[in-house]
Amino acid sequence: MTKQKRPVLIAGGGIGGLSASIALARAGIETSVLERSAFTEESGAGIQLGPNATRLLRDMGVLDAIEPAAFKPEAIWLFDGVSGKRLATVPLGDNPEQRYGAPYVTLHRADLHAGLHAVAENLAPVELRSSFEITQVKTLEDGVTVQSAGGHRVEGSSLIGADGLWSAVRKTIAPGAELRFAGATASRGLIPTKDLPAPFSEPVVGLWLGPRSHLVHYPVRGGEALNVVAVSDGGGEVQGWNQQGDAAALLSGFARWCRESKSLLEQVEAWRRWSLYRLPTLNRWSVRTTTLLGDAAHPVLPFLAQGAALAIEDAVTLASSLGALPDDPAAAFRQYEALRRPRATRIQRQSRRFGWIYHLSGPARFARNFALEHREPKNALKQFDWLYGETPNAATSKFVA
Ligand SMILES: Cc1cc2nc3c(=O)[nH]c(=O)nc-3n(C[C@H](O)[C@H](O)[C@H](O)COP(=O)(O)OP(=O)(O)OC[C@H]3O[C@@H](n4cnc5c(N)ncnc54)[C@H](O)[C@@H]3O)c2cc1C
């Protein structure tokens, strides 16, 4: 353990905050995770974790904890949502393990969160404080104090703002930065996998591309349920991750889609919806002894399925920087930001590009389909080497081509 007397404070015990607490504990640094909920949030959609995330989760001792709830898909199947034609296959199964040294898995966000929580709560340097909603932050030269909605004050040697999309800590770092509606809305639901017809019964991620919308489904809860997410342009702005969805409105947007895809949508009993947001690039993520991580620093659109992975990667890099410079958090945060910014920006940009490709209409849609149908399956994973093969901090990629 380092000599510091005050812990590093972590605002938010979501995916990134809990990952940071675990990674910092491994570097011998004490943390206090201040989370506004009771750490038992069941809401949220499924999450896909590429090898760049699972490799780090394995190092942190979390992969074993989530294993019973995780599903290892055999492939990603891409379809045209209107014709129902299968366009391409990205082979998964054992391929990611062989190429990148870690698996590709799908699971419910609540199961990933529970796995991180189970590991964090057993680590002596980690204190988990629930029902602590941070409302005020005071960043000083040699430390930080935060105050909760209930009037409690806590002091720390530094503060990591891992408080998500609507971050309160971000307001102290970049007061003018406002989220902007990205012009699309997502809806999610779960269906029991028992008795589902093909292709939904297959052990794959299904990605159906249509004009101005797309549909994705994959097994979660160890394969017992199918997570279904439909994303459409427009839809109006809603706050939070968990607004009630309107099945009739959603189905009308998919009226021209093929019979199979519509039959899947009709089986979802309870839709939840949320809006997609973008944040203008922040000039800085850190001020003195306070920094940001995950969605608080760089929200990412979901089209590359990298939101959770980016937060986990941030956590590992941050722990490495702070582990090397435990008595100089300001310098550690500058180093962390310099290491992470290029990759976060690249993933944000590529996610936007993938969303644009998924939602193409008119002749561009046919050109996309043609390109997908004529792609060599063996090259399908290769295009993701930069994403899945990268390890934070490392100058070299880790894939075995
Ligand atoms: C309940 C919930 C459901 C979600 N569902 C989806 C989903 O369906 N689809 C999707 O794409 N993404 C969803 N997300 C977001 C997804 O988890 C993140 O985009 C991604 O994992 C990046 O992680 P993060 O740690 O940056 O943010 P998050 O995982 O969102 O974690 C942020 C944490 O900070 C806490 N927090 C926020 N403000 C404060 C405060 N002032 N004081 C203390 N704690 C605070 C939150 O309760 C949360 O636990 C959800 C997040 C939450 C919290």
Question: Can you give a write-up of this model?
Answer:
The chain has 401 residues and is α/β, with parallel strands linked by helices. The chain has a domain at 8-68 and 102-178 and 280-356 and 380-388: 3-Layer(bba) Sandwich (FAD/NAD(P)-binding domain), CATH 3.50.50. It has twelve helices and 18 strands. It has helices spanning 15-26, 51-59, 63-66, 95-100, 109-121, 169-173, 247-253, 259-267, 307-324, 329-358, 362-373, 385-388; strands at residues 8-11, 31-34, 46-49, 75-80, 86-91, 105-108, 126-129, 134-139, 144-148, 153-156, 158-161, 180-192, 204-210, 213-220, 225-233, 243-244, 272-278, 290-292. The strands form four sheets. Strands 5-4-13-14-15-12-17-16 form an eight-stranded mixed sheet, sandwiched between helices. Helix 1 (15-26) packs parallel to helix 5. The longest helix is centred in the C-terminal third of the chain and has 30 residues, at 329-358. The protein starts with 7 loop residues before the first strand and ends in a 13-residue tail after the last helix. Residues 394-401 have low confidence and may be disordered. Bound molecules: flavin-adenine dinucleotide. Flavin-adenine dinucleotide binds at residues 11-17, 34-37, 41, 43-45, 109, 133-134, 162-164, 168, 188, 241, 294-296, 302, 307-308, 311. Residues 11-17, 34-37, 41, 43-45, 109, 133-134, 162-164, 168, 188, 241, 294-296, 302, 307-308, 311 line the site of flavin-adenine dinucleotide.
